[in-house]
C-alpha cells in the first residue's frame, strides 16, 4: 500500500500538512506566531495587518458557543513593520502567508510596497472581506472590485491571493469568478465569517459583543455548509489553475475531507483553533490521516474536487 501523505501544494508553495491556521486567530503577537511555528500547522497565516498598529474594537468583541462564534475584532494588529521584521528574523521551514487588510487602496499599496522587499513571504493573503470595520465589504461591490484588482495587480507582481466573503447566489458566484479569472491570482480563500450576525444573551436580553450594536461575523461549525458551497461554486467557476483554500467550520478530520472533496487544496482553522489551542493541528492531522487510511486514499489529489452528484452514486 502507498504511504499516506497529507501534504499539499499551492502553486509551488509546499505545505507539509494541508491544514493551517486561519488569519485572525492566535496569530497576532510574537508569542502566538512563535507558537504556530512550533506547531504541526502546514503553514502560517498572520493576523490581517494595516500600515499602523490598531487596538481594534472595544471588548467584549468575541463570543463562542457550542456550534459557532461571533466576532467584531476591528482588525487589532501590530502593524506591517512588526510582521515584516518578525518574519524576516524568523527561522521556520513553514510557508508564511502575510494577511493584509489596509483600509484603503492607498494603504494596501503602501503595505504591498513594503512587503515586496521581504525574502521570507510565500504569499500575501489580501483580506477584502473583513465585516467589522464599518466599511462595506469590497467584494460585494462588483464594479469597485474590478477596478481595485486592476490597480493591485498592476503594482504587485509577487504571489498574492484573496480572502473572499461568503456569497449566496449563483449569479454572484459567476460574476465574482468571472472578475477573479482575469487576474494572476495565486489562490482564493473561501470564506471569511458570515457578516452581520447577531447573538443574544436571553437572560440579560442583550447582545453578546459590544461593538457595532452586537453585529459581527459568524464562524465555526454552523457555517460549514456555506464554506463548502462557496468552495464548490468557485471550484466550478474559477480557472483551474487558481487553488482554493477552504475556511469555515473545520473541527474534525472529516470536515477537512469535505472541504477538499468540494475542491479545496488546503484548509484553514479559525474558531476551533481559538477554542482548542495549538494542539488542534496534531488532532486534525491525525484524524485526517486516519480517514484517508480508512478510505484507502493516499493523498489529497486522489479526491480533491471529486464530489459526486446524488444521482450518480
Ligand atoms: C476583525 O479583525 O474584525 C476580523 C477580521 C476579518 O474577519 O477579516
What is the gist of this entry?
With 313 residues, the chain is an alpha/beta fold. Helix content is 32%, strand content 19%. It has helices spanning 30-38, 80-89, 105-115, 142-155, 170-180, 224-237, 253-262, 271-276, 280-295, and strands at residues 8-10, 13-15, 19-21, 44-45, 62-65, 68-71, 96-100, 123-127, 160-164, 188-190, 194-198, 200-201, 206-207, 215-219, 244-247, 266-269.
How would the blueprint of this fold be written?
Blueprint: E1 8-10, E2 13-15, E3 19-21, H1 30-38, E4 44-45, E5 62-65, E6 68-71, H2 80-89, E7 96-100, H3 105-115, E8 123-127, H4 142-155, E9 160-164, H5 170-180, E10 188-190, E11 194-198, E12 200-201, E13 206-207, E14 215-219, H6 224-237, E15 244-247, H7 253-262, E16 266-269, H8 271-276, H9 280-295
Parallel strand pairs: 3-16, 4-7, 7-8, 8-9, 9-10, 10-15, 15-16
Antiparallel strand pairs: 1-2, 5-6, 6-14, 11-14, 12-13
Bound molecules: succinic acid.
Please provide a written account of the structure:
There is one protein chain. With 313 residues, the chain is an alpha/beta fold. It has one domain (8-302): Aldolase class I (TIM Barrel, Alpha-Beta Barrel). It is 32% helix and 19% strand. The protein is built from 9 helices and 16 strands. It has helices spanning 30-38, 80-89, 105-115, 142-155, 170-180, 224-237, 253-262, 271-276, 280-295, and strands at residues 8-10, 13-15, 19-21, 44-45, 62-65, 68-71, 96-100, 123-127, 160-164, 188-190, 194-198, 200-201, 206-207, 215-219, 244-247, 266-269. The strands form 4 sheets. The protein has an 8-stranded parallel beta sheet with strand order 3-16-15-10-9-8-7-4. A 4-stranded antiparallel beta sheet has the order 5-6-14-11, with no helix packed on it. A two-stranded antiparallel ribbon has the order 1-2. α5 (170-180) packs across α6, α6 (224-237) packs parallel to α7 and α7 packs across α9 (280-295). The longest helix is centred in the C-terminal third of the chain and has 16 residues, at 280-295. It is globular. The model has no long low-confidence stretch (mean pLDDT 97). Bound molecules: succinic acid. Succinic acid is lined by residues 24, 48, 71-75, 127, 129-130, 132, 192-193, 217.
Amino acid at each position: 500500500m502507498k504511504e499516506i501523505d497529507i501534504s499539499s501544494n499551492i502553486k509551488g508553495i509546499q505545505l507539509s500538512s494541508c491544514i493551517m491556521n486561519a488569519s485572525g486567530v492566535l496569530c497576532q503577537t510574537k508569542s502566538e506566531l512563535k507558537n504556530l511555528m512550533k506547531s504541526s500547522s502546514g503553514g502560517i497565516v498572520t493576523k490581517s495587518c494595516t500600515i499602523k498598529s490598531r487596538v481594534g474594537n472595544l471588548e467584549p468583541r468575541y463570543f463562542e458557543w457550542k456550534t459557532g462564534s461571533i466576532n467584531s475584532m476591528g482588525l487589532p494588529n501590530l502593524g506591517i513593520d512588526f510582521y515584516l521584521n518578525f518574519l524576516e528574523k524568523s527561522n521556520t521551514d513553514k510557508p508564511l502567508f502575510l494577511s493584509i487588510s489596509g483600509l484603503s487602496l492607498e494603504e494596501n499599496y503602501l503595505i504591498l510596497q513594503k512587503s515586496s522587499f521581504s525574502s521570507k513571504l510565500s504569499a500575501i493573503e489580501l483580506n477584502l472581506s473583513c465585516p467589522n470595520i464599518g466599511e462595506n465589504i469590497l467584494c460585494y461591490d462588483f464594479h469597485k472590485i474590478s477596478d481595485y484588482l486592476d490597480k493591485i495587480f498592476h503594482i504587485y507582481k509577487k504571489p498574492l491571493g484573496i480572502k473572499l466573503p461568503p456569497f449566496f447566489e449563483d449569479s454572484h458566484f459567476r460574476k465574482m469568478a468571472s472578475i477573479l479569472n482575469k487576474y494572476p491570482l495565486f489562490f482564493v480563500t473561501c470564506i471569511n465569517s458570515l457578516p452581520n450576525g447577531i447573538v443574544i444573551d436571553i437572560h440579560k436580553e442583550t447582545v453578546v459583543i459590544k461593538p457595532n450594536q452586537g453585529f459581527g461575523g459568524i464562524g465555526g461549525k454552523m457555517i460549514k455548509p456555506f464554506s463548502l458551497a462557496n468552495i464548490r461554486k468557485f471550484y466550478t467557476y474559477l480557472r483551474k489553475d487558481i487553488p482554493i483554500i477552504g475556511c469555515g467550520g473545520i473541527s474534525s478530520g472529516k470536515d477537512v475531507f469535505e472541504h477538499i472533496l468540494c475542491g479545496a487544496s488546503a484548509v484553514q482553522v479559525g474558531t476551533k483553533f481559538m477554542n482548542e489551542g495549538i494542539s488542534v493541528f496534531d488532532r486534525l492531522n491525525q484524524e485526517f490521516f486516519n480517514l484517508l487510511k480508512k478510505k484507502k486514499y493516499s493523498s489529497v489529489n486522489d479526491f480533491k474536487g471529486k464530489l459526486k452528484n446524488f444521482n450518480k452514486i
